[in-house]
Amino acid sequence: MRAQPVGRGDQRSWLGRVRDALDALVRSSPARFAILVFSGLILITTLLLSLPIARAGEGRGTPLHDALFTAVSTICVTGLTTVDMATHWSPFGNAVIFLGMNIGGMGVLTLASILGLVISRRLGLRAKLIAASDTNPSRVHAGPVSERQAVRLGEVGGLLATVAVSTLSIEAVIMLGMIPSVLAQGYDLGTSMWYSAYYSVSAFTNTGFAPNPLGPVEFFDDYWFQSLMMLDVFLGSVGFPVIYALLRTWRTPRRWSVHVKLTLTTTVVLWIAGALTFLVLEYDNPDTYGRFGFGTTLYEAFFMSTMTRSGGFATVDMADLYGSSLLVADMLMFVGGGSASTAGGIKVTTLAVLFLAAYAEARGAPAMEAFGRRIPRDMLRLSVSVVLWGATIVAVSTVVITQISKQPLDFVLFDVISGFATCGLSTGLTAELPPEGKYVMAATMFMGRVGTVTLAAALAASQRRQLFKRPEERPIVG
Q1: What is the spatial distance between Cα 155 and Cα 362, in angstroms, rounded to a whole number?
Q2: Which of 47, 134, 168, 410 measures 20 to 30 Å from 125, CA to CA?
Q3: b/e sequence 414-430, b meaning 16+ C-beta within 10 Å
Q4: What is the pTM of this model?
Q5: d(Cα 310, Cα 74) in Å, to the nearest integer?
Q6: What digits encode the pLDDT tens for the residues 105-153?
Q7: How far is 337 from 344, CA to CA, in rounded Å?
Q8: Distance (Å, rounded) from C-alpha 131 to C-alpha 193?
Q9: Confidence grade of residue 280 (pLDDT, cut at 50, 70, 90)
Q10: Measured CA distances, 66 to 44, 59, 70, 110, 320 (Å)
Q11: Which of 244, 277, 273 is nearest to 260 (CA)?
């Protein structure tokens, strides 16, 4: 029998098999596909940043550990750095980072859903469920999809479009508002437009990279610029589902979902509580707020409270904070922002569910309730799992990096939580880590950005029906 030559039909068959394999992966495990996509983006960014053309001046490439760390920090929109972001990168390198911040800010699961749609030419039910889990605090419920959930699934396409449109629109408006402030610092129009665009993207994606050598400190007396940064960080951290709901029902707050109400309420409470705490703890610190008047100190306390939620910008040196303030910042960073947002952490709705569960237990109530709605008990299981996952990552990374660096625990814990929560604030420890410490921190950032969301989705998807129940027995707790 004569062998058939390899032709276009065989090539099409090979491409078809690859496409079918990817389609099967998207349908069977969208979360795993999302991790693969995210890892691929980090790999591509690392390779691009390693090229000599990406580095300014010296004509040689960036070391692998610094390129990988910057790539992870960019795609994970973390903001921690091991090089001087204002001077190390060439225009090509800055363009790669600028694009990477926007891609990372879109969210790993939202991006994966879009890519899955392109590959399979349809958004399958399970991919929609995963997309909904990244944009819906109720995550994915076990069992058949109800009619109400089916309606929400039908809105996923509109939500994905809202992600892109709202991101670009908000960044453009904030950029235009920042240009006069940058011009006032003496920069030319081209540089002012670049710095404003960079700051706008970096703030909305909650990355925290700064394009100028002095960073936000250069705009310390410009309350307009700092206020735009806080607004940008807030909009990025509340989450796309909240933005989507506000755009559609901003005139009728009573129609807001429990997720929107919980997110906004918890965010505002933490913002005010954090600002007042920083004000009380740092008002007499001569290295931070002690040298300013009350008005400036109050404003900067609110700025600090905003940025510790995942913004990553700072107008004071984090290493100069009192230990008590570092601990408060640790707690705020660990919580992070809203679900399906550019912020990291365990998310404000996770914290809200835990408090609602404790409140219901204290009252002896049979179920958790909020804003006239009952919250399913499986939300508590997911919330506890996410918190334990985050605490385990932080604990292990802290032990390893403390052993590697031999630095004080409060500084190590601060930078590790900042990495896990993709915040980007640093005491200066991260930049001084040896290569092995940078790899550990990069892994911490990756697991913090991808892990909590995919863990929740995987746990929800893994729920299965069981036709029997084992005998119940209550252990002693507390």
Answers
A1: 37
A2: 168
A3: bbbbbbbbbbbbbbebb
A4: 0.84
A5: 14
A6: 876 556 545 544 444 444 454 455 444 444 444 343 333 333 333 334 3
A7: 6
A8: 34
A9: very high
A10: 14, 16, 6, 28, 26
A11: 244
